[in-house]
Design brief:
Layout lengths: L3 H11 L1 H7 L3 H6 L6 H25 L3 H25 L13 H7 L4 H28 L3 H28 L3 H28 L9
Protein name: Rubrerythrin family protein
InterPro entries: Ferritin-like, Ferritin-like_SF
Organism: Natronoglomus mannanivorans
Length: about 210
């Protein structure tokens, strides 16, 4: 029987390459389609936060496990707060901001209908988002904007809490090795969706998705 610690270790090991590349400087280049400046970075971040808010709110609406539903509601509220904070940084009202297309990661997550798979996807999404968030922090540090960098570090702290939340719930709902396997497939699927879009965008711009060593 797997536990959450070995589950997390397996997911990170099996997805080492895509997670590493999603945590490279090229992830920001892909997210902004090559326009790495403060406003495009904030807009890309707002898109991601909005998509996460909608995903978790949607899951909460039809979740039958009370503890899991509460976790999804909490996460949705955190992501809504992140979204509103980023809009404040942009100086934009919510009514005036039109989010871009839903990221492939969240299209993948929204296809999950079972609790075990959703929690697995939750873990995969959090691992991928944690890597990309580090690049946003690094950008604002390099842009001599420590206040905004600190803001995104706080977002990263929320991701840490979300990961712990998801792993604790997986321990509660996984009753067999098969459940853990389905959760692992969902986690890897979420990471693969994010990485696939990263590769597609970079190759579309004529860039090599592999990081420059």
């Amino acid at each position: 029987m797997t536990d959450s610690e070995s589950f997390l270790e397996t997911v990170e090991t099996e997805n080492q390459t895509p997670l590493s590349r999603l945590g490279s400087s090229k992830s920001l280049y892909a997210a902004t389609e090559g326009d790495i400046d403060a406003e495009p970075v904030l807009r890309a971040t707002a898109d991601a936060e909005y998509a996460a808010w909608q995903t978790f709110a949607g899951w909460a609406d039809d979740e039958t496990n009370d503890d899991v539903r509460e976790a999804f509601e909490t996460t949705a509220a955190e992501e809504e707060g992140h979204y509103e904070t980023v809009l404040e940084e942009l100086g934009t009202e919510a009514d005036d901001f039109e989010p871009g297309e839903t990221p492939a990661l969240h299209d993948s997550l929204r296809e999950r209908t079972e609790t075990v798979e959703r929690l697995g996807g939750f873990v995969g999404r959090t691992l991928a988002s944690d890597r990309s968030k580090d690049q946003v922090v690094g950008f604002f540090v390099g842009d001599a904007d420590p206040q905004t960098a600190s803001l995104f570090r706080e977002f990263g702290d929320d991701l840490d809490d979300q990961l712990e939340r998801a792993l604790t719930l997986l321990e509660a709902v996984c009753e067999s090795d098969e459940d853990w396997d389905r959760a692992e497939d969902a986690a890897s699927g979420a990471i693969e969706a994010a990485y696939g879009e990263y590769v597609e965008v970079l190759e579309g711009m004529g860039a090599n998705p592999k990081p420059v060593c």
